[in-house]
Amino acid sequence: MKKNSIEFFDRESGKICTETVMGDGALRFAYNTLAGRALWGFLFNSSLPSKLMGKYYDSPKSHKKIPQLANLPGLRLNEAEKSWQEYGSFNDFFTRKLKPGMRPFVADENVVCSPADGRLLVYPDVDKTAKIPVKGAVRSLETLCGQSLDAKRYHVAVFRLAPVDYHRFHYPCDCEQAAPARLIPGKYHSVNPIAFYKAPDVFVENARTVTELTHPQLGKFLYLDVGAFGVGSIMQTASTGHHAKGDEKGYFKFGGSTVILLFDADKFAFDADLLTHSAGGMETLIRCGASIGTIIE
Known about the structure:
Oligomer: single chain
Strand content: 25-35%
Number of strands: 17
Distance between the termini: 37 Å
Order of helices and strands: EEHHHHHHEEHEEEEHHEEEEEEEHEE
Number of helices: 10
Structural class: alpha+beta
Helix content: 10-25%
Largest sheet: 11 strands, mixed
Radius of gyration: 18 Å
């Protein structure tokens, strides 16, 4: 990332792009100034600011804010199932569903698909006691998940959703869910890269849910939904039982947010392009339903 910009590789276009950050000035104030960091206790250690923000964005009064988001570069307004004027509130638009067929999932049963639209970094072959994300973090993968892990090494995929993205998340493959998602309470830091340099343990500190899923070949894998500043709630729309690849799992309300997948390193392999870009520290913009890797048979 350059000093004053956030760059990512767009897999569809094959180009390096610069991200437009909603609230860029506020983020830089909060994380890059002494005055902003003095407010961390109120802004990020309490759910109150996010709840108040969520209440406003759920109200009809927030409808006037929709054009501010709808006009940001990268938001595909034509994919939404309704025109922006038809949404009752900002959050109604933010959590919008898409027209049928907008996010087809790769049909091959050996392909694991992206569960969400987002900027993806992959961490291959991570020891369960290692720190995540690798650069700057001080707490382990097991701490992130809030539990002991069975496999010795994991392939980890981190999908960072920007405000312009489709904010519903889905199951990446056919799987079984035996228990509801488990909530781990926490803080509400931004998940934007601007924040990573000042708060590198964002994923471990933030409120998040953990879902254990099983697949005949993959075995048990973990699906984490990470909240962030402005995310009043992580909504789980699915229940326990069998889920087909592409079924909706839930959605995030307004704010930056992240999905993290953990696979047994002996049973899964990432796509080569994701490994290449991530090794260089560059996120890959990927759409929900696209391939992220294959199951090792």
